[in-house]
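Researcher: Next sequence.
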Amino acid sequence: MYGQLDILINNAAEQHYRHSIADITDEQLERTFATNIFGMFYMTKAALPHLKPGSSIVNTTSVTSYQGQPELLDYSSTKGCITAFTRSLSQQLADKGKHPGECRGPGSDLDTPHPRHLPKAKWQTSAPLGAGQPSEVATCFVFLASEDGSYYTGQVLHPNGGMPVNS
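Model: Next structure:
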């Protein structure tokens, strides 16, 4: 049906490896936050009037939300913001029948090789099952947006190949 949305998936990210906080420029910090959290905030705000009861909002974050990453200080900070945003939004929307949730895993940032900083092999072995593929994470998006996921709100699914995280 036109004029409404059933699913909003916020899945955009920007990251820049820096070895020191001193190397993060004001411009980089602002751009990383603008892409990773402000964009999600504004997209959600614009979509809300078009989401009917039973609609889903899926926000993508990263394992760095919980574990941090010393070379990705600004990026990790935005991913923590996404977790707090999702949990707070779910409480705000609970009585409106809209269900925000998160999906994070290897498809968001572990698939991206950064040979100048970390060898691909390190990313592949950081999770017991190795680096995943986007198709292995996509099922979480489908689940959260389906009727089967209708009782999930403000939750984080961890399709990350068995990497222990603090949730």
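Model: The chain has one domain: 5-157. Confidence is low (pLDDT under 50) at residues 104-125.
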